[in-house]
Each structure stands twice: as structure tokens, then as C-alpha cells.
Amino acid sequence: MLRRWCIPLAGLALVIGSVAATAPAVAAGHAPRAPVAGHLVRPTIHLIRPTGPRPMISHGFPHIAATSFNWSGFAATGRKFQSVSAHWTEPTAHCNGTGRKFSSFWVGIDGANSSTVEQTGTEVDCHGSTPKYFAWYEMFPAFPVNFSNRVRPGDHFKARVTHTGGSEYTLVISDKTRHWFHIIHKSLRGARNSSAEVIAEAPSTGGGRVLPLADFGTVHFSGAMANGSAIGRSRPFRIVMINNSGRRKDAVSPLSHGENFSATWKHST
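The structure assignment produced for this chain is given below.
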């Protein structure tokens, strides 16, 4: 697998730094796989051509406020965030047999306006005509750690990231369908806790090239919470992925009841 980075764009790039993470403490039914060189990573967002003041509110919920090469979904800023959580159903990948394509779905703290991301989620990648499903956690910019547990389309996930004080975080992910879970205790110095997000993501290479987005159909997020309340109460902004020409790679629905939305694949590149 490839290492993930965002593409810098002069004038609008958000700062991406380097902060070392300590070794994880894990409580779960299975030990995580150790990271290896060349793994994908899930970096901070890179916002491109914001379409208006953030956030733009209509009937209490935001319209599109930003586009990005690597993220789509909702991100809240403007305060300190101690927790973020959401549910989602692992989507079914439509792999057409040509090349490799990638996609991931996660909750996290930081990354919208800071240089770290504390996050956990799932992935579905296409290796030719074969989909690969798995779950992971990551304390970016450290390498991710993949879990060995089986993940299949239709599995119902719940994930939560909590700042427990100082440089300490607890990351929890559970597959409610297959009855496994992981509780990860990690330290990360220098994290700002300045944003909370629920995201579908496309990967990039270490050289800065965005990789094709796997056709995941539609992923539905529900119960998106920040600091224990519906994320809509934190005035989040909506993010849509685009390519270098400005074509949308997915569509992101408005928030429903302040905590539910979907992302629908449109183009790989």
C-alpha cells in the first residue's frame, strides 16, 4: 500500500507538520497489525477554493463551504473538541477490474486547521476487480495501524475519538455486525484539538499525487456527534472532493437533524 499525503496548493494550504506518536496500548479481541513502510496515511485536509464564507447556514445547517482534493464530509472548528463519534455502514465497492483505487471512512479530531489527526475508521480499496475491506486507526503523521478483524460490506460501525487529557487520546471502533471492537490508548504531543470531523477520504501518494477514488457507491453516516452533541450544533462546514479540474468526485448531502448525512461516489479522478 502507499503512503498518503495531501497536495499543497499555494495560498490556501493548511499547515502540515511532523509530530511523533508513542507506541499504542490496545484493548481488543485481536492485536493490531504493525504498520509497514509504504502504508497509506490519512493526512490533514487541504482546502481548495472555498465557495463562500464558512459556514454558510441555511435553516440551521450549512451549505457547501469548501472543496478538497482528499476529504469530503463535515468538519467543525472554532472551539476545543474533546470528542467526536459517528455510526456508518461499510459500503460495497464496485471494482471494475482496472488498476487500484482507494477510499476510507472515519471520525477524527484535528486536521481541519492543524497539523495532526487523531482518527479511526474503515477502508475499502479496489485491487483490480477485488475489493479489500479493513479497519484501522491512525495518529497522523505517524503511520496507520490496520486491524486483522474481518470487515465486510454492510457491517455497521461505530467509532469514537476522545481527548482524555494532556497528550492522551482514546480511540474506539466497533463492528456491531461481527461483534468485535478495539480500544486504543495513544499519546500525541502538540495536538491542538481544534476541529472535529466525520469524513470520507481519497488517498494521495508520498509524491503528492491523489490516487483514484474507489467507487464506494454511497456511504451513510448517522449520529455524528462532537463534544457529546449533534455535530450540527458546532456549525460545521461541508466539504466536497474535487479533482484538479474542479470536477466533483463525490456528492455530500446536507446534514439531517444536525447529525446524519451521506457521501455518494461520482468519479475516480
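Interim note for the steering committee: The longest strand covers residues 117-127. The chain has one domain: 36-265.
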